[in-house]
Amino acid sequence: MSKILVTGGTGFIGSHTVVELHNAGYEVIIVDDFSNSNPKILQQIEAIIGVKPELVELDLCDEAKVKNFVLQHNDIAGVIHFAAFKAVGESVQQPLKYYRNNFYSLINLINAFDSKVNLVFSSSCTVYGQPDVLPVTEDAPTKKAESPYGNTKQIAEEILQETCAVTPQLKVTSLRYFNPVGAHHTALIGELPIGVPQNLVPFITQSAIGKRGPITVYGNDYDTPDGSAIRDYIHVVDLAKAHVAAIKRLESNKASTNYEVFNLGTGKGSSVLQIIDAFESSTGVKLNYTIGPRREGDIEKVWGDVTKSTKELGWKAELDLKEMMSSAWKWEKYLQDNPF
Length: 340
What we know:
This protein has about 350 residues and is of the alpha/beta class. The chain is about 40% helix and about 15% strand. The protein has helices at about 10-25, 40-50, 65-70, 90-95, 95-110, 150-165, 200-210, 235-250, 270-285, 305-315, 320-335; strands at about 5, 25-30, 55, 75-80, 120-125, 170-175, 180, 215-220, 230, 235, 260-265, 270, 290.
């Protein structure tokens, strides 16, 4: 099978995708600078798949080094581009850091391949903002981004779409993730936030194991059945498998155009309080939580229409909330016994 470059391949979604690519028979090469991940993840991947993927430590913002890397690895057939800064709060405080990193890395990659490559781009449902209609489809209008991070995803999609329009040999699939959670069933890889987790599930697991204090539920007065905000949570392994499906679609020339967009979610929403309940019921661990005020910039409710992904990618999320919560908890317990 062909060789796939995975940028940010030691990150949360990247590491799971490396495993699924290997399972599908692909050869993988990882590029990472470890600015938001741990080098030990490479050993963890090896423990799962039995071989150590090739890794090149590289800052994708260094144009000359990226060009040199691609020249030396001229057998790469496709790219899955995860590498990006992603902390919403930090992006508000340091917008230029985010614009520089997230745009330079993408542009340098495309230029290094002379715009002749199959590229799967890691995008986000943040491009929709608070949708006018739910579930949100890929045709829904994008809203003004709530943060510089979200704006980098919107603008990156525009860069790719506009480049594809004048570059027939560039084939791109943008995958708009909803909320990835969970961990590999081996509990050898999972989400590894640096500092205080910004996402709900790792904060839940860290609180449950004693690393953090009580969980704050931000708002219980939303227009939802239980008053807490609703999101579309998807197991990271399901998400990783979708990237394999996207690469296969590009390789087999099944894409309807050279720029396509797909939602990746379960197609249904779960509230914060439902996630807390799912964790407690699937692990038997009681959580300590309090109700706080709404957070500025938080969206009330969003979940995706995944009809297009099911029909055209031939992919569908299979793992349920129970598996998401129990696998995340297994990973947290593994980290307690095997600190990174």
